[in-house]
Design a protein that fits this description.
single chain; eleven-stranded mixed beta sheet; seven-stranded mixed beta sheet; 31 strands; 33% helix; 20% strand; globular
Length: 787
């Protein structure tokens, strides 16, 4: 506050409220530099929701300053809203003086609510730090932990808010005089960079053997030699350890696969440069830009035929996952590595279905049988954050597959009015949790599949961690309807402990709501939701649905014809069971005599057992899940008869279909049975595929036919709904839409009908986006007083 000056025609004063991710990203120094360049006076400070600026000067000066704020911003800043107002002119003791006010100047009320401000993402090393890293004359030359306000660790090192050095895992490293000078200089890009460090005062690298014995020599060159020899090295990065090995050594990659107990799931590759990535995969312009962005995710893209990688890197897949070096450690490795090695396998350092390893002592316990050496540092990692993954889609923006490093904990605005804080449990598979506060939802990093004890423990730890970090006191808990899911059971336990209401959200409604929330929509929309499993209102497993949905509720308009899963969930792994169920649906009671049954299950005892279970309905679970249709077709075509990881068979089936632009026949091999809801019957399509195989048609052509016929079936039911209801917005969600061919083809054909298509671009289409949908549904119901 300041006294009002005499009225002047030449001097004006304005206040800006900048809301969004503008703390811990160098935003105040940025404003300071623009203010000094514009010759204005005033101040900038952090507040409870972002940054407040007061600036005074001539009309021309303020206009120049405002344009600079709009045109530029620090790389990690994200603006949600800008509020500008005219305020009374103040007496200024020094003309042209502009100040940066520290967060400790905030009053107690603002400090108490500082947890409302978002925490900055962890981000890839910036160009300026990279130049210093490689500059022999710079004092941080070859310093593997270098960072500034534009890059480096944030979310993975913070213990509590406000984001100050004593509240991070850097508190144990006393700043040297040189670093302290940079830290306190508003004109320096390391001004208030909390992880600031150098050779003299910061964390240091160390290379040890699998039992913790220190290996002699400069760590980075020694690691280079080990990798060149085909050895496996564990490397500690931002959010945990990776396991690295040269990607062109089949023996080394196969050994890593055996040690990780990872039978078929593809490994990610870290490429020396973007040019190298282009030699391995076909990258769209937007995907290439993402690789080079601060988020630096893994990008799944179509592999080039001449890509020089070992077969065990991505068996049975037409894609490779590539990323670029995103920490100074990674950059130094490639600087030292043999120039002939352009890419390394860089996979999470854990056995399959276990949480990521983050602690040095933990690494000695968990990784000693997985690697030949460990390159670690002594900066503690506060929370496990895996690499993010996106799918490059031709002529579309990339689709998130896993949202983690580089994207969390950036919040997402909800298209609802409620400001009641809540917790969203998310799904059972690919779990993420979410916290709702002030009309926004903050999603956690990818956690994993809650059916594994270690992952479930990690899930519970994340809830406690984020409740404390963001100072959230949930007044409600949203959860999936499946009564046996670990997340649902724990939601009930928490609700009792906290004495708050539960809000059950049907699985596929949450999928639909998640894509609506991304686009700021409240509905109604027509939502095509296709996935592997979801508990339906009737107690049956759903997964191939057309819903008429808004954020409050939904109506089921159509679904795939149910098939019976032999042994229930066991069929999600043994895809032959799905194939047998499809044969029963296609050929009726005569299916048992069809030659395809013997070909599918050669062992007579096992075959007769499964046939008997189907015929008697014994331990068989009906489902409309699209994912199980993909599994069954993959089994019938001999493409994949066992899922060693989730969606392996659908991925293999998509790879088979990849090379076929047009599939035959072009006439519909499906029927739509009228009713409420309508039923999509693919029996004729299954029979056509079985007969096509018997006639010698290739698996590639038949896989493409399945994709295309399924697309046409959904287009037809949507077209009927559009004509009947007049709704021309269609939302696509569910894990099946991680299939590029299906997603792109359906989008193109729906747009040809004249409808608007909503697809995921901020959160995954798979269960990793469920927490957002639960948040949107719960908040909408609170708006309506339905909770």
């Amino acid at each position: 506050m300041c006294p009002t000056a005499e009225f002047s025609l030449q001097v004006y004063r304005k206040r800006w409220r900048i809301l969004g991710q503008v703390q811990g990203v160098g935003y105040r120094p940025f404003v300071y530099r623009q203010a000094r360049a514009s010759g204005i006076s005033g101040y900038v400070r952090n507040d409870d929701r972002g940054v407040t600026i007061e600036a005074q000067g001539s009309a021309a000066q303020l206009k120049r300053f405002s344009r600079a704020l709009d045109a530029e911003r620090p790389p990690l800043a994200s603006i949600d809203q800008v509020i500008v107002e005219d305020i009374p002119v103040c007496d200024e003791p020094v003309a042209g003086r502009f100040l940066i006010l520290d967060s400790n100047i905030l009053d107690q009320a603002q400090a108490a609510s500082s947890a409302r401000v978002g925490i900055t993402i962890d981000s890839a090393v910036c160009p300026a730090c990279l130049r210093e890293l490689l500059d022999k004359d710079d004092r941080r030359h070859l310093y593997a932990m270098t960072n500034c306000t534009d890059c480096g660790p944030r979310y993975t090192i913070i213990d509590r808010i406000p984001y100050d050095r004593p509240n991070t895992t850097m508190r144990g490293f006393e700043l040297c005089d040189a670093c302290r000078s940079e830290y306190n200089n508003p004109g320096d890009r390391r001004y208030h960079a909390q992880p600031i460090a150098c050779h003299d005062c910061g964390p240091k690298l160390e290379l040890v053997n699998p039992v913790g014995g220190v290996l002699s020599g400069d760590p980075v060159p020694v690691v280079m030699g080990l990798l060149s020899e085909g050895r496996v090295v564990a490397i500690k990065g931002l959010g945990g350890f990776h396991l690295a090995v040269r990607c062109d050594d089949e023996q080394a990659v196969a050994r890593l696969r055996r040690c990780k107990q990872r039978d078929g799931k593809p490994f990610a590759l870290m490429c020396r440069s973007l040019d190298v990535a282009h030699t391995l995969v076909e990258l769209s312009e937007s995907a290439g830009a993402l690789l080079c962005s601060p988020a630096a995710p893994i990008v799944l893209a179509t592999r080039r035929p001449d890509a020089r990688v070992a077969p065990s890197v991505a068996p049975g897949s037409h894609r490779l996952g590539v990323m670029l070096p995103y920490t100074p450690i990674h950059q130094l490795l490639f600087e030292s590595l043999d120039p002939s090695i352009d890419a390394l396998v860089m996979t999470s350092a854990n056995a399959s279905n276990e949480p990521l390893t983050i602690d040095n002592d933990e690494a000695l316990d968990r990784l000693k049988g997985l690697c030949d050496a460990m390159l670690w540092h002594d900066r503690p990692i506060r929370r496990r954050v895996d690499d993010s993954v996106v799918l490059d889609i031709k002529d579309e923006k990339p689709l998130p597959i896993r949202r983690a490093r580089g994207y969390v904990p950036k919040s997402i605005s909800l298209p609802t009015e409620s400001r009641v804080h809540g917790l969203c449990i998310g799904g059972e598979l690919k779990n993420t949790i979410g916290f709702v506060r002030d009309g926004r939802v903050t999603l956690s990093q990818h956690i994993g599949d809650l059916g594994y004890t270690s992952v479930f423990d990690h899930f519970k730890e994340n809830i406690d961690d984020l409740v404390n970090l963001f100072d959230v006191q949930p007044k409600w808990i949203a959860h999936d309807l499946h009564p046996m899911y670990m997340g649902t059971v724990y939601a009930k336990e928490l609700a009792k402990r906290w004495d708050v209401p539960l809000i059950g959200v049907q699985h596929h409604h949450a999928h639909a709501a998640s894509v609506m929330a991304e686009h700021g929509e409240t509905g109604p929309v027509l939502a095509v939701v296709c996935d592997g499993v979801g508990y339906g209102d009737d107690g049956m497993s759903w997964g191939g649905e057309l819903l008429l949905a808004d954020l409050v509720g939904y109506e089921r308009l159509a679904h795939l014809k149910p098939i019976d899963l032999i042994g229930g969930d066991a069929a999600a792994e043994d895809t032959r069971r799905c194939g047998l169920a499809l044969l029963q649906q296609a050929y009726g009671e005569a299916f048992a005599e069809h030659p395809a049954v013997t070909e599918l299950i050669p062992d007579e005892t096992e075959r007769q057992m499964f046939i008997g279970m189907l015929q008697k309905g014994l331990n068989c679970t009906p489902t409309t899940a699209t994912g199980r249709y993909f599994d069954g077709i993959a089994a019938l075509l001999g493409v994949c008869q066992y899922n060693s990881f989730e969606a392996q068979a659908p991925m293999r089936l998509e790879t088979e279909a990849y090379a076929n632009e047009a599939a035959l026949p072009g006439t519909p091999l499906y029927r739509i049975h009228e009713g409420e809801p309508q039923v999509i019957d693919l029996s004729a399509l299954v029979a056509g595929i079985v007969e096509g195989k018997a006639q010698g048609r290739s698996a590639q052509i038949l896989a493409a036919m399945f994709h295309d016929q399924l697309t046409w079936a959904w287009v037809d039911v949507v077209d009927l709904a559009v004509r009947r209801l007049g709704i021309k917005t269609v939302a696509l969600s569910g894990g099946v839409f991680c299939n590029e061919r299906l997603s792109r083809s359906l989008t193109e054909r729906l747009k040809a009908l004249g409808v608007r298509v909503l697809a995921h671009r901020a959160v995954p289409a798979n269960d990793g986006g469920l927490a957002l949908g639960q948040a949107a549904v719960a908040s909408a119901r609170l708006d309506k007083g339905l909770v």
